[in-house]
Design a protein that fits this description.
Shape: elongated
Radius of gyration: 33 Å
Number of helices: 23
Largest sheet: none
GO biological process, one term: sperm axoneme assembly
Structural class: mainly alpha
Strand content: under 5%
Protein name: Tetratricopeptide repeat protein 12
Number of strands: 0
InterPro entries: ARM-type_fold, TPR-like_helical_dom_sf, TPR_rpt, TTC12
Organism: Rotaria sordida
GO cellular component, one term: cytoplasm
């Protein structure tokens, strides 16, 4: 009998140790530890409710022993009540945290980034193990260029949910911005492995694969720009026709059109390899296409021809230059015209061969009007009809363009020309 009482007491004391450890973990600053402690407390309560207290042993003991045996019963009952209260508090806290998340999302979409951070932070004070709030706040930090803070939030999200793909993706992109390309690739590969194990959608896996490819693109871009900076630092400033001096002269306002045509043609001769193409970008050469008072607005056909000739050279095997050309003020203004030059067509044909460039171009045009313009050139047997047909052929992979060619006659006409 004494042995049984001692055994029961030992079990009770063991449970007290478990409870003490769980309570300590519940007050931890680590949301992962808090989450585990909650799960362990629920398991402990479930076990207690199933086994209860052996009242046959209690009834056979002395009054002192009965008092000792009743204490565990009362304590476990209090613990169960406490757990129920905590479960209710967790439910209420989740509701409050969701409300703050919604407010944070609204502030984020309005570009009120400090306000968004404040809402997400309030939500995390209420619910420390809310993984989505960590990644949402991380995205705001990214917008502010606070990449280390964003990475820290992603790490917390992954402590809560180790298979949270979004956290790996955001962290990887931050590491790219910090030029830590190997670490970035590791994050994306981990995301890919999780996506495969969880049977994520094809779109999710493609997105991750694109991120892995982006690491290499950004690594190449960084290495090229470092080489370009070395090239520019070694330029002989006494030579008037070098890249830096030519760009400076072209940025002088209120000169004749002939002056600018001559300067751009000179750039076409200076820019002849990967290093000089990158040096143009590093040396703010794209300001010519975005903020120059004459070049961005000129309707002069000869000037436009020279600019597109330069763009063709700049975009050879350079995705970043291509992107900047397509997003330049000069190019967007030029697209509104009804007549394209031969060099413009050649430029469009070459950039439309690449998926990324083609997607940017599709965002800049009105598909129906653009296709009709190209078809009119083809019908009129214009000198640029071959370029127009090739451009249509390259764009035909896009769904918006495919719809147009549901008409068999138009498709046959295009095939005949090609």
């Amino acid at each position: 009998m004494a042995e049984e009482s001692q055994e029961d007491l030992d079990k009770f004391l063991s449970k007290i140790d478990d409870i003490h450890r769980i309570v300590q973990d519940l007050s931890s600053n680590d949301p992962n530890e808090v989450s585990k402690a909650m799960e362990q407390s629920d398991v402990l309560l479930k076990d207690t409710s199933k086994t209860g207290v052996d009242r046959t042993i209690i009834n056979k003991s002395s009054s002192e022993s009965t008092q000792q045996q009743m204490s565990p019963n009362a304590f476990m009952s209090a613990l169960e009540k406490d757990a129920q209260e905590r479960a209710e508090n967790r439910r209420k806290n989740k509701i409050l945290a969701d409300e703050l998340k919604t407010k944070g999302n609204e502030a984020f979409h309005q570009q009120l980034y400090d306000q968004a951070i404040d809402y997400y932070t309030q939500g995390l004070k209420i619910k420390k193990d809310y993984d989505i709030l960590y990644t949402n706040r991380a995205q705001v930090y990214v917008k502010q260029g606070r990449y280390e803070d964003a990475i820290n939030d992603c790490d917390w999200a992954l402590k809560v949910t180790p298979t949270f793909i979004k956290a790996y993706i955001i962290k990887g992109k931050c590491l790219i911005n910090l030029k830590e390309f190997d670490r970035a690739k590791e994050e994306f590969i981990q995301a890919e492995e999780i996506a495969i194990k969880k049977f994520e959608s094809i779109n999710t896996r493609r997105m991750i694969e694109e991120c892995i490819q982006e690491v290499q693109r950004q690594r190449d871009k960084y290495q090229r720009e470092e080489s370009a900076r070395i090239f520019l630092s070694n330029e002989d400033s006494s030579i008037p026709m070098n890249l830096t001096n030519t760009l400076k002269k072209l940025n002088i306002d209120k000169q004749s059109i002939i002056y600018y045509i001559g300067g751009i043609d000179l750039l076409c001769q200076i820019i002849k390899d990967e290093t000089t193409r990158t040096a143009f970008r590093v040396n703010n050469g794209f300001n010519l296409f975005n903020s120059h008072s004459i070049i961005t607005k000129s309707d002069n056909e000869n000037l436009s021809e020279s600019i597109f000739n330069l763009m063709i050279i700049l975009c050879q095997d350079d995705d970043e230059n291509t992107k900047q050309c397509l997003e330049s003020k000069f190019f967007i203004n030029y697209l509104t015209k009804n007549i394209y030059s031969s060099n413009a067509f050649q430029f469009l044909v070459e950039i439309s061969l690449k998926n990324q460039s083609r997607l940017i171009l599709m965002q800049k045009i009105t598909p129906d009007k653009f296709i009709q313009y190209l078809m009119n050139i083809i019908d009129d047997k214009n000198s640029n009809r071959i370029y127009a047909a090739k451009l249509l052929s390259n764009l035909a992979i896009e769904s918006k363009i495919k719809q147009y060619f549901n008409n068999k006659d138009e498709l046959i006409k295009l095939i005949t020309i090609l």
